[in-house]
Design a protein that fits this description.
This protein is an alpha/beta fold and 250 residues long. The chain has one domain: Rossmann fold, CATH 3.40.50.720. The protein has helices spanning 17-28, 40-51, 67-81, 104-132, 153-173, 194-198, 200-207, 218-229, and strands at 8-11, 32-37, 56-61, 86-89, 135-140, 178-185, 240-243. α1 packs across α8 (218-229). The radius of gyration is 17 Å and the shape is globular. The protein binds 1,4-dihydronicotinamide adenine dinucleotide. Residues 12-13, 15-19, 37-39, 42, 62-65, 90-93, 113, 140, 142, 185, 187-188, 190-193 line the site of 1,4-dihydronicotinamide adenine dinucleotide.
Amino acid sequence: MARLKGKVALITGAGSGIGRAEAILFAKEGAKVIVTDINEEKGQETVKEITSNGGEAIFMKLDVTNPKQWQEVVKKAIELYGKIDILVNNAGILISKSIEEMTLEEWDKVIKVNLYGTFYGCKFILPAMKRAGGGVIINTGSIMGIVAYPNEVAYDASKGAVRILTKAVAIEYAKYNIRVNCLCPGNTRTPMNEPWIKDPKLREEILRPQVIKRFAEPIEIAYGALFLASDESSFMTGADLVIDGGYTAT
Ligand code: NAI
């Protein structure tokens, strides 16, 4: 039995890495997937992969830092499908620099995509979910919102904020049958991590706290998102789901 049969899911940053794996998995489980990304070409590649395997997906261009685009995309999605059952706020960026080297513009950019992007997603989708009688939001935190990593000040701060934003939305919207949880991946084999995957010294350093000594594959994170999106997690809200190879256990 498909676990997301009849559901409509909107995923941000679904042109690459974890977001792409989530889009493909959700479609396999019967969801109609609205693949969004700032990068149209990569988003379309995800759609093609889904539809060529018999799944249902469409692409909508969305820069998560743009509130106007958010409103347009939500409106278009509702016109098309009548509802959005699942939102995955997945889009995120990382700029790795020391606090003193990081420019004010770089700080703003990371906070804008990771934190404002997640806030906008919640804000603009909640009215539609309320009207529909419920929904599920999955925000994407990180182990770097639980513990800090050197040279990632804006990223760490944004992800810590996403975790508590998740709880704030969850407690306000439980009465509307809307569940909101935070998926916290550990080190995953995606383009975001390329420098650490390529360089043996950096790799050794970043994997040191983990007890499972490898990068996660994106699908291993997507399975967590699927659990949070499905009714199997019906008693879960305002919580973190940490999938990190034991990184934060040590
Ligand atoms: P990725 O770099 O492979 O993919 C990110 C996607 O987001 C890209 O398709 C990109 O075009 C899109 N994007 C960037 N800026 C955007 C914007 N303004 N609006 C819309 N889309 C935008 O990244 P990855 O690794 O798949 O990360 C996905 C999420 O998981 C991010 O929130 C990241 O912080 C989080 N995460 C990743 C971890 C990892 O080890 N890869 C670990 C913990 C969390």
